């Protein structure tokens, strides 16, 4: 190795790096929909750098597909494409097409729970498919790269005793922060749906704190089925939050340039810029917000 010539501490690093630069085998457990679009950029780049990427794809999916740049393994799911699309439309119409109102929380929560219930059933089908799981286990992966919005990847990494790399923007009700024991003071980290910034007046802080309490309840509702599946499959008493807390690295599609600053843990890495990797020309039409 060339680094032998250098008498600096970095020469030591180079010695070790000759070991660590070997290509790895990465099991990718994505979440369908827009979540996949930015994860795909990372998966393709890692593949280009010589790592073996195996992507687990639900048989029925909106956006995850085959590519010459990574291997795909399909698993059966108990729903049709029409059912999946109908479910996603419900979420989209309420959550994205208009600015969220406080009263939308319950509608959104209901829609989200219908979607996650569907996905948890799919995840169950994957986990309990013994032949598929056996073949994955025998592949000898080094790491699991997953979007923890859904529990499959996290459960697999625990079951295979592999480090989990998370790729996400955020998890509803801030379960990510709770799991990582990341401080998130309601005095200056605005909760979703409040429309507040990091600089709040006293009454706003009070409302933000009330929202924090409400979100704890939301978390309980949303992730109960994840915890139930994890406990049953891994045969130990656990919750999704506890499982999530074992993650090795959190790759966050977050950036303080676009979003309010907030505390982060040392194993959280901001990769918000990845959202800009696919560039397109700006339109000439200027949008004026009304
Ligand atoms: C593989 O990735 C390259 C960019 O790295 C892209 O140009 C090409 O279209 C991709 N191939 C497939 C089959 O998606
Ligand atoms: C398990 O997965 C394999 C590969 O995706 C599939 O061919 C098989 O039908 C599945 N088995 C069950 C019981 O779903």
TrEMBL record:
It holds the Pfam family UDPGT. InterPro entries: UDP-glycosyltransferase, UDP_glucos_trans. One of its GO terms (molecular function) is UDP-glycosyltransferase activity. Belongs to the UDP-glycosyltransferase family. Keywords: Glycosyltransferase, Membrane, Signal, Transferase, Transmembrane, Transmembrane helix. It comes from Cyprinus carpio (Common carp). It is found in: Membrane. This is UDP glucuronosyltransferase 1 family, polypeptide A1. GO terms for cellular component: membrane. It is a single-pass membrane protein. Residues 1-23 form the signal peptide.
